[in-house]
Amino acid sequence: MVRSEGCHRKRSAALTQILSLALILTWSSLAVASAIPRAVNLKALARVAEAHHAPIALLFWSPGCRYCAVVERDFLQPATTDPRFRHVIFRRIDIKSSKVLRDFAGRATTEARFAKRLGVTLVPDIRFYNAQGQKVAPEMLGLSTPSFYASYLDAALRRAQNLCQRS
To answer: Residue 137 in 3-state DSSP?
Structure first.
């Protein structure tokens, strides 16, 4: 009886180690760095946008928001490599972050305060701006229709580009 309990404990310990390793590997794969950089200085981005007559697409997100991760991974990241949108500037802003951000006027604020000032309360929220910090396409709030999301994003990016190229 003592021997079978010892075998059971060894198997249980081995199983615990295997499950722990699998969990660590899963977490590390989720923690891969984003292809969409954080916004740091919107005034500097606006100068680049103005030089290229390009829009700025801002993804407002929150850590732990699984819909934000889907929007970024499945829709925005592919758009960053799409030749049609090569001049669009993509950035992300964490609505809960206290990291410093320079707004379109060059004023120092935090990501959270900037999002609050714009009225961002739900995420994911993608907003499209020109070099003057004005909206150039309707915002895309949430992820209610994933099967149509790519076409909605495509239309919003094309509209934003068209308006910025005219200015």
So the answer is: strand
Q: What is the pLDDT of residues 39-86, one digit of tens each?
A: 999 999 999 999 999 999 999 999 999 999 999 999 999 999 999 999
Q: Is residue 37 situated within a structural domain? A: no
Residue 80 and residue 17 share a domain: no
The residue range of the domain holding 102 is 42-166
CA distances (Å), 99 to each of 39, 42, 80, 118, 156, in order?
Answer: 10, 14, 24, 17, 28
What is the share, in percent, of the chain residues with pLDDT greater than 90? Answer: 75
Which residue in 84, 47, 65 sits closest to 159, CA to CA?
84
Q: Kindly state whether residue 19 falls inside one of the protein's structural domains.
A: yes
Amino acid 5: pLDDT:
62
Q: How many structural domains is the chain composed of?
A: 2
125 and 102 in a common domain: yes
> Torsion-angle region of residue 133: left (phi > 0), alpha (psi -120 to 50) or beta?
left
